[in-house]
Sequence to fold (604 residues):
Amino acid sequence: MPLSFSPQKTRLGWIGTGVMGASMCGHLIEAGYSTTVFSRTRAKAEPLLARGAKWADTPRQVAEQADVVFSIVGFPADVREVILGDAGALAGCASGAVLVDMTTSQPSLAVEIAEAAAAKNVVSLDAPVSGGDVGAKNGTLSIMIGGDQKAVESLAPLWEILGSTWVCQGPAGAGQHTKMVNQTLIGGNMVGVCEALLYAHRSGLDLENVMKSVSTGAAGSWSLTNLGPRIIAGNFDPGFFVEHFIKDMGIALEEARRMQLKLPGLELAEQLYQKLAADGHGRKGTHALMLALAEMSDIEWK
Amino acid sequence: MPLSFSPQKTRLGWIGTGVMGASMCGHLIEAGYSTTVFSRTRAKAEPLLARGAKWADTPRQVAEQADVVFSIVGFPADVREVILGDAGALAGCASGAVLVDMTTSQPSLAVEIAEAAAAKNVVSLDAPVSGGDVGAKNGTLSIMIGGDQKAVESLAPLWEILGSTWVCQGPAGAGQHTKMVNQTLIGGNMVGVCEALLYAHRSGLDLENVMKSVSTGAAGSWSLTNLGPRIIAGNFDPGFFVEHFIKDMGIALEEARRMQLKLPGLELAEQLYQKLAADGHGRKGTHALMLALAEMSDIEWK
Fold:
């Protein structure tokens, strides 16, 4: 470290080819990088294999053939397994390799992985993203990175391919903490957006007309502009799944408790989303929060 | 009605020359309209008088000399007094006059005023604004209007002077309801913004760096972009006073109860702001919410 990166010299590994991972890995393949992939469900990796990626049967085997190994999986337990498990990536890493976990996961786990990696002379970075499936597809993600700054900077050519914003936020775990900041912002705002539109509906206003008055001023937000029209149309297809957002908020609240930090707004948001999931809406988009709020007031949303 | 508007023909009245009202009335004077003003504190009207406005001793006397009378005062009780009181504007209105209340006030009071006005063949519109002191100064307010649509449209030349967005949202009270939607959006979002930045601080992140990662994506909002840097700098000077925001949220919650609508996020925001005011911060800006949240976790914000 630092490696000198180029499609000619650098071998990449990719673990986890869900909606986000498949798009992101695809950009690296497109840029000419030789890439080895593993995914729990091989079928999801097939389009990448068809574009020239090599398959490996375990995360460990991915790492054995790569200088930089990315992972983006589901829950912290999955991160632990694919990186620290017996067949995990760290076991296959050569000295000098780099692990980059892009899953939204626990800051404390990121620190634990970084320490285990350092013991093998491997660098580990936590690098969760925001921007969702669209950002992954268009390479416009915001990448929030924790870990050694020089290592982060040496990976610049790769960050540039995956996202439009990448910032080293501090040591191991800082990327995850920054993502928690991001999700706390979204949680508070989504409660406001849904309650406000519910108020508008109940008071008999024309919601599209209301948007003209409130969306561009001090009440404006990305969520209102982008998700407001979907809420009004009753379209709750996922951009970002309710159940993943609940996971993220759970991590943030757990960290907050550890830091003796009281976040009543985030606690409320998490409770409302738990109710939403309990009502069977876990696989809808986060803006489906409207359904939980409407139900609390016995309102049937369209 | 509808009147044909022009600086040559139309006489205006203005009641309430606080920070917002003084700027707004100033634009109308500048546009050439003959304007009569009243304010509880005459000193605040002096700059307008120096620019050619006439003084009247009561709202009623303002209305006796005007075709269109604007008001923007403090609380609903003030609105009631300056419009419906013995020395109020309605008592001085000639048949065919128009009353425009731009105070953020109760939708039900707007309806009551409109009914009392109609009985005298006077048109009343509720037209609260968002955009704050800066929007008032620059003529870039968003004006949310309730009342007869034709009357609203006939006042187009005046709305254009005062704001950059004006929308008729429905019958009397609809302007106030729309403003409540606006404030509900801001309340939820401000809780999210302050909790997120508090989390960032507690977890040891560099807040300005964090802003680079979170302010332009799905977590982005007007409040984060515009008030986040002030929060980080510990500058809690008011754009918009805490105590006025509490008034607005109180109206929204009162209306919500009347409509049997449960808004837990707005209730929480209102409680947090009440705590902030109880701690002596009522005359700070709304982003001072950070001080209440920080105190709950025994954190001293800079």
Observations:
- The beta strands of chain A are 11-15, 34-38, 54-55, 68-71, 98-101, 123-126, 129-130, 141-146, 163-170.
- Chain A has two domains: 11-171, 178-296.
- Chain A touches chain B through 74 residues (CB under 8 Å).
- The mean pLDDT of chain A is 96.
